[in-house]
Model the fold of this input.
Amino acid sequence: MFYQFEDEITTIELEAINPHYITAGYVTLNEFSGIYDSFGFSRFAFDYCKSNAGFGSSVEIYDDYSFAVLNIKNAENVNENMDSLAVFIKKNLLIVVDISDNDCSVRDSFLNSLSRYSCINITLEKLLVGFLDDLIKKDKNAIKESEFEITKLEELVLKNKATDKFNFLLLNLKKEFLILRNSYEQLIDIVSSLEDNDNEIFEDDDLRYLSNFKDKVKRLREDIDMLRSSVSHLQDAYSSYLDLKTNHIMGVFTAVTTIFFPLTLVVGWYGMNFENMPELSWRFGYLFVIIVSILVVSVLTIIMKKRKWL
Done:
């Protein structure tokens, strides 16, 4: 479906599009296959949309138009399938091609961008940036939620409540942040290429909208970098916690061994079976050895606890 910005936004048929007015269209890939040549787009551009879906975002610049394939990750759930779309930009024309949009979020972002600016103030740059901005509008809140999640994980480490799957959880977080960072990096590259305006599709005075949007994506990327750094520090803290826990266990074993070592000496002493050992023939010799052993163990245990070795 195509929309044209005249005195008001109106739906318009393909044949009735006036190139002097800003026009925006949202079509599926199948619909685009039958109309791309009507706008002067090449067969290569159409084939590229199909072949590059799901493999990363990219942009191509031609003399009279530009097109970009975008693969947008949902920052609230990075593990779900990404939305794939293509954006074709020509003088006074923006066409969004739905390649894969299972939750209709791309379509909703497109419709939201139509009402973002009035027909009097609308420009191609504003329309494009409004659409791209709506695609990532939830990312800031998603990143804040991730910050809270990392804080909760830090509390688990401090309270000694981290489970055996803690490291696996941290690795998953690092993977998700890396995917998001790559997505933002690709989006920055695309906007930078469009901002160069080599084919002079955009007005020079309005390129600032693209620049402002690029700065916004850069801030999101910096936030992701900060989260990745936090996860790395948390991983180091957890490793230190495991080392400390292991050292404590080894310390307890060492202390227990030290406590019972004198008993080994007693056993060895009385196991020598010399003829002149009065305790062997003494009536209370057995009881004496037991009492001595208990006293030695008790004294050493008290000393270990005072020094907090147990």
